[in-house]
Amino acid sequence: MVKDWEKLNSEEIANFRIFKMRRDTRRSPRTGKEHSFFVLESPDWVNVVPLTPDGQVVMIHQFRHGTAEVTLEIPGGMVDAGEDDPAEAVRRELLEETGYAAEEIIHIGTVDPNPAFLNNQCHTYLALNACWQQQPQFDSAEDIEVTLVPLADVAGLIANGRITHALVVAAFYHYENYKKQSEK
Predict the structure, then answer these.
(1) Structural Rg of the chain based on CA atoms
(2) In order of start, what are the domains of the chain with their CATH numbers?
(3) Residue 36 banded pLDDT, cuts 50, 70, 90
(4) Which three-class secondary structure string do you get for the chain?
(5) Nearest residue to 171 (alpha-carbon basis) of 151, 141, 146, 142
(6) Which of 31, 41, 45, 180 is 20 to 30 A removed from 151 (C-alpha atoms)?
């Protein structure tokens, strides 16, 4: 049986705008040897699958610096300090990035983006009856184009590699699972 590794030491080694890096020293319960591991501490994230009354998904095109490409994604972002409920961040991010607001926000799943070295979670929500309310309010580091995509097209966009963001793919998995559970 796999056992927890005893933490011997933990130190912050860098602090950036959206994450901190720390080095943890832990002892292997199997070998007794000490090893260093690097962990990125990041706030929790949210993703939202916003559906319009006519079955369109409100999606965004955004340049991503990690891959140096424009991606097709759903709205999302960090849970800000003071937002005790991730649903608050969902409402804020949806309105800021797209100008849309929704009648109902439903939590449909949570994943650990990469537990090998990240300590945060990504919470996925479904936003029902999303309707345009105002012009988006981008921050100075965002350039976003809003697009409506028929929900029926999403699986094909994932299959053909147009949607590649792992957390977006996970969000649509959560949506499909939610739909199956709702139909029971």
Answers:
(1) 19
(2) 6-41 (no CATH), 45-183 (3.90.79.10)
(3) very high
(4) CCCCCEEEEEEEEEECCCCEEEEEEEECCCCCCEEEEEEEECCCEEEEEEECCCCEEEEEEEEECCCCEEEEECCEEECCCCCCCHHHHHHHHHHHHHCEECCEEEEEEEECCCCCCECCCEEEEEEECCEECCCCCCCCCCCEEEEEEEHHHHHHHHHCCCCCCHHHHHHHHHHHHHHHHHHC
(5) 151
(6) 45
Reported residue count of the chain is 184
Place of tokens 């300590």: 119
Q: Residue for token digits 């011997």? A: 8
Tokens 């945060």, residue? 120
